[in-house]
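Support request, priority: normal
Reporter: lab tech (M.K.)
Component: structure prediction queue

Hi team, I submitted a job for Zinc finger CHC2-type domain-containing protein from wastewater metagenome yesterday, and the status page still shows it as pending. I've pasted the exact input below so you can check whether something in the sequence is tripping the parser. The sequence length should be 153 residues. Please let me know if I need to resubmit or if it's stuck on your end.
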Amino acid sequence: MSTIEAPIDRLLARLDAVRGRGEGRWIARCPAHHDHTPSLGIAEGADGVVLVRCHAGCPTPDVLAATGLDMADLFPRRLRRGGRGPRRADARRLPRPDAAAMLAAVGGEAMICALAASDLAAGRALGGDDYARVMAAAATLRRAADAAGRHQA
Ligand SMILES: [Zn+2]
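Reply from support: The job had stalled in the queue. We restarted it manually and it finished. Here are the results:
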């Protein structure tokens, strides 16, 4: 393949009834359950990481499996592989691949919080599962911040 397909393009091309919902946000029919009214929320972060959330509660890996993708497909290649083609002298300055993957995951958690905030701002209530997911995201971000703090000390 000569061009690198963005994660968002890869996903949207495999979904039905895709509609834009503003900057970097879409809604589509969830492929993992019988979805009459599109209930799959999709968002793209500034770093190209894609967040998927089925409002009916399908686990994201199931949604992706139904499209033939997996979780890694939500991340741009440069985040998955820790950067490509740096000059040797610069290589050690780049984050290690595991650090890059962690940053991508943190970005995904932040997107979950942002999506929830945007639902609330639009007057939509958060369901119990959504609330639990936001709390889990907040806990993950807290742990990541604590871990980063320990490395700096
Ligand atoms: Zn679903």
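Residues 7-152 form one domain. Residues 97-121 form the longest helix (25 residues). Let us know if anything else looks off. Ticket resolved.
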